[in-house]
Design a protein that fits this description.
Structural class: alpha+beta
Helix content: 40-55%
Number of helices: 23
Oligomer: single chain
Largest sheet: 8 strands, mixed
Length: 800
């Protein structure tokens, strides 16, 4: 052991530059691997921390609002009957997906303190299904009137325990007199789960228990071990068909319309989606964003980047050890002549390999700890703390140990396999096999680097494409905010509020709508048009909404101010819906179409354009849009808005104002975060690959001094010697580009396939990737070879 440690330290001292390059490269690679694997682990283990998540299923029938997808919601009669008549179901219940924040008051020392908290209504069967565990009180007491249960973290935030009282706000946000008792405190759901948002619950009771047309509840069931989920799904289909027929027959006399046989037989298929697979299941349509969703393509792309970075660093490490073979061949065999055992010599080489790896791992862990408090940590969903990611540490350490064993074993065996008397006759580095082996390893590095550059460039181009894409309306210089103030959102008070804001000359327009304009899905109405069932996305707005947002009218007259108070609804439909047969003057339910607008993009660009309509309702609009004049001071306008809100409603909660562009950009936050991580680690991978080139060229120049000297004696110039060193690497990079280009194209094409609107596959990106790698490689080889090329041949001959 002492001799092995001495040899390891000797290697570090003798080959300072190459050793440092390898340690730095391995450190960066293991740091990147750790960070990426932390994010990948978060994604891949989503919902799996919930006990027996594989036996918990979401009942997902074919959506009545989007026939191409399955819905997270179903009706209570269907869900309750399914649970009651299915022996395979161990427990089952529902949760209502709406969880808007509302004010909640806690009484302390005679004074009321106000907080904001989201609240979900659930059935007691849901609590048992998802394994909700009480740490205080009794969850079954939730069925008592005016009772509520809180998560542990929420109870700590409010400073309450079981038996304490809460007061909630009414529609105007004011405190009501009804007291709600905290009957239970339950353990928080894991942060990386679909249920993490459930921080406070109350009993849904019998609401909609007999409403066969209200698709308002998400049903989860826990199946017994070995049960067939497909059989339960088929049973739901039968139950739904019977319930729908009974409902349609009962309502036909009320509607005064004849019900067709097709409407009576609503044969709707159903899926049971395992909770541990829900995060990545794209078949399920979640229009309200109730449950977080992930992209398996992006996750596996991240994992691929992590593996490729590690591969590049390990290739450097292997090349480093093989480059040491020729200079060690003679000393090792001299030791053998003097009786050193082969086993001891081989152990010394393995010890060096493990030493390098462990040193790099320790440095990587230190860097990971340093990253915890930086801005970079915000790009990762999970904590970067080492203690929170022990499985990731174990994987990283295991890979390093296996790599050390592989990298050290063959050189150790090769060097010690020679007959000592024959050791000076040749070397692996000078042999054809040695050169081919090292060339192949470098080729893998270059191929990976070029492919990563191509992929990273297209992720950045897609982000730029999304930001610059014409959405069909003017979203620049528009401030937006939401408010729960009933005094401000009522139709009769809107004009007063808008006029007060318009007193600031920096404000050139004020309008309002229900919810944000650009969002995944908001409100979808199914309507029959020319015998076809069409799903129409609808946005209720004020009459001046299109003018303020710069949405032109292609046909018709658009909205008028009196439409805000008219009991008849007025629609402006998009061009796609018009092409499906909806024209000016046509009626949609209780409304009439007054105009046609272009096909604006009201959803993120992952989604294609679909039938859409603006509608004016007399209902309240809670989301305001304020257009600024060119050159306006946003901070001053925001202060003016807040003062106006406080003056008109002093009880209104503080409002959060942001640019509309920020809300639109938030729709692409996940893709932008992934693109940033991929871009950073792509640069890192190229740097690590070039470190390997640098190290290999250093060794080559050391062992080609005699050749260079002879060439210079024969009249070769410095430039010719540099071309000699560069020629092999130019050919190598060119061959690697030919291999990497189709791989990069295929990968990018698959990734862009998740977007309905995507950046073109520019040819120049591939050329640029090739040019970058080739230029940097030539610069690196030239820098490393310059000293050998310019050396006096006489000095080389003397040293020989």
């Amino acid at each position: 052991m002492k001799i092995a440690l001495h040899n390891f330290l000797t290697t570090l001292r003798r080959y300072k530059v190459s050793s440092l390059l390898n340690i730095v490269g391995l450190t960066l690679a293991f740091t990147a691997f750790y960070v990426i694997l932390v994010q990948v682990r978060w994604e891949m283990t989503f919902n799996r921390a919930i006990p027996e998540a594989e036996r918990i299923y979401l009942v997902a029938p074919r959506s009545p609002f989007n026939e191409t997808a399955y819905s997270i919601c179903s009706t209570r009669p269907d869900g309750e009957q399914l649970i009651a008549c299915s022996p395979e179901i161990e427990a089952g219940g529902c949760i209502r997906p709406w969880r808007g924040e509302q004010p909640v008051w806690v009484k302390r020392h005679g004074e009321f303190l106000c907080f904001r908290m989201s609240l979900n209504s659930v059935s007691t069967g849901f609590l048992a299904t998802v394994g909700m565990r009480a740490v205080e009180g009794d969850l079954q007491a939730l069925t008592q009137p005016n009772s509520v249960a809180l998560s542990r973290s929420q109870a700590e935030r409010l400073g309450v325990h079981t038996g304490d009282l809460l007061w909630f706000g009414d529609r105007e946000g004011k405190r009501v007199d009804t007291q709600h008792e905290v009957v239970a405190i339950y353990e928080d759901f894991p942060a990386n789960s679909s249920l993490a948002h459930i921080v406070a619950v109350f009993d849904v009771g019998d609401r909609d228990i007999n409403q066969a047309s209200h698709w308002n509840d998400c049903y989860f069931v826990r199946l017994r071990a070995g049960a067939d989920p497909d059989a339960v799904a088929r049973r739901w289909e039968v139950i739904h068909t019977e319930n729908n027929r009974a409902y349609m027959e009962r309502m036909a006399p009320v509607w005064g319309e004849e019900v067709t046989e097709e409407e009576l037989n609503d044969r709707r298929d159903c899926l049971l989606v395992p909770l541990d697979e829900l995060y990545f299941d794209r078949r399920v349509f979640d229009g309200m964003g109730t449950f977080p969703s992930g992209s398996a393509t992006l996750t596996y792309s991240l994992l691929s980047v992590a593996v490729l970075v590690i591969v590049i660093a390990l290739i450097n490490f292997v090349n480093f050890f093989f480059a040491l073979v020729p200079v060690r061949l003679r000393p090792v065999n001299i030791l053998k002549v003097f009786g050193a055992p082969t086993r001891s010599l081989r152990f010394s080489f393995l010890f060096e390999a493990f030493g390098f790896m462990l040193l790099a791992q320790l440095c990587a862990w230190y860097v990971a700890i340093a990253l915890k408090g930086t801005e970079f940590a915000s790009y990762v969903s999970s904590s970067l703390a080492l203690g929170d990611n022990l499985p990731v540490l174990a994987i990283s350490l295991g890979i390093s140990l296996v790599a050390a064993l592989v990298a050290g074993s063959f050189p150790a065996w090769y060097i010690t396999s020679f007959n000592p008397a024959m050791a000076a006759k040749g070397s692996f580095v000078g042999s054809t096999a040695g050169r081919r082996f090292r060339t192949a390893l470098l080729g893998v590095q270059f191929t990976i680097s070029i492919a990563l550059i191509v992929f990273s460039a297209f992720t950045l181009l897609q982000q730029r494409y999304v930001r610059r894409f014409d959405l069909g309306f003017d979203h620049e210089r528009v401030l937006t905010f939401e408010t729960n103030s009933r005094r401000l959102v009522r139709t009769e008070r809107f004009e007063e509020f808008a006029s007060a804001l318009m007193q600031d000359p920096q404000v050139v327009g004020v309008t309002a709508g229900q919810g944000p304009l650009v969002v995944g899905n908001y409100s979808i109405w199914g309507r029959e048009i020319d015998g076809e069932e069409v799903m129409i996305h609808v946005r209720p707005v004020r009459s001046n909404f299109l003018d303020v947002l710069g949405i032109p009218i292609l046909a018709g007259e658009g909205f008028r101010p009196e439409h805000n108070r008219d009991t008849t609804w007025h629609y402006v439909v998009n061009d796609l819906l018009a092409r499906k047969g909806v024209g000016i003057g046509d009626r949609l339910d209780d409304g009439v179409v007054v105009g046609i607008c272009p096909d604006i993009h009201f959803r993120p660009l992952q989604y294609p354009v679909v039938p859409f309509a603006f509608v004016t309702l007399s209902d309240d609009m809670d989301t305001f849009y304020v257009r600024l004049a060119a050159g306006a001071n946003p901070d001053a306008v925001c202060d003016h808005i807040r003062r106006t809100v406080e003056r008109l409603d002093s009880d209104c909660d503080p409002i959060e104002i942001r640019f509309m562009d920020e809300g639109i950009d938030a729709q692409y936050a996940r893709e932008r975060r992934i693109a940033t991580i991929v871009g950073l680690f792509t640069v890192l991978a190229v740097v690590i690959a070039l470190m390997g080139v640098f190290g290999i060229v250093l060794f080559e120049t050391q062992h080609r001094h005699r050749e260079v000297a002879i060439r210079k004696v024969m009249g070769a110039t410095t430039a010719e010697v540099l071309r000699l060193f560069n020629r092999r690497y130019v050919v190598l990079v060119t061959v690697c580009f030919i291999l990497a280009a189709p791989v990069g194209y295929w990968t990018v094409d698959r990734w862009l396939g998740s977007f309905a609107y995507r950046t073109p596959m520019h040819w120049w990106v591939f050329v640029a990737a090739f040019a970058v790698v080739l230029t940097v490689t030539i610069a690196t080889v030239t820098f490393c070879s310059w000293r050998a090329a310019g050396e006096n041949p006489a000095d080389c001959v003397k040293s020989e």
